[in-house]
């Protein structure tokens, strides 16, 4: 059933304002156009809602009975339209973001904090998983946006480069190598390394780069999450090779982060979205925030945005 909203709006305005002249002015219509809207509604209903005379305008008995319902419908639709307009203009609403777990250490918390300051009423649902899971979440519609590592391209995904995330060496300050400013991968031979199975894409890239130079590294300990690796390092169990974005100097007392060179192995972090998808206003506002970030200034810390 098609609802004649224009007719309902005209009827409610006439009833509430007591005449055609004021109602037409409020709705920015001519009296002729307003009359046609009311007549169309009455014709569709097969009932007369308004009694017209040269002296006054009054509602019929049916019109008086129908007015509260008509007013409620007009208010509901007008309120919904206003809320949608607010969403479009100010980026209000909620969205789901899929991301790789390493981004939740510093990068995403900093971004979400800035986003919350701009849009305090918005909500973000986070789905963390491996890069392949992030891609599937975006492709399947479970998430509007995804933050993942560069991988095999998909025709339905649009990818935007965010920053390069170098691998670094994490160790206790008492470690023999901790006094150096940077290390070579050759220096990793014989170290008690904590390997992170969860960084599958990172491990593949690291092993590939090292294999080209004839370097093979084996982890003495295997864990699933970078936080577990950091706990083991802090306890003095071993050392770890982790993305720079997962650890900042000062995060853990007595733990250092050293650059790894020859070669410098970097992960490419990208923003994903469906190529032909339409983002919600809330997701669009998050993308706008990402565009303002100076990623090159501090890719391994909470990224700054222009003042």
UniProtKB/TrEMBL annotation:
GO molecular function, one term: DNA-binding transcription factor activity
InterPro entries noted in UniProt: HTH-type_LysR_regulators, LysR_HTH_N, LysR_subst-bd, WH-like_DNA-bd_sf, WH_DNA-bd_sf
Domain (HTH lysR-type) ranges: 3-60
Highest rank taxon of the organism: Bacteria
Record-linked CDD domains: PBP2_LTTR_like_4
Assigned protein family: Belongs to the LysR transcriptional regulatory family.
Protein name: LysR family transcriptional regulator
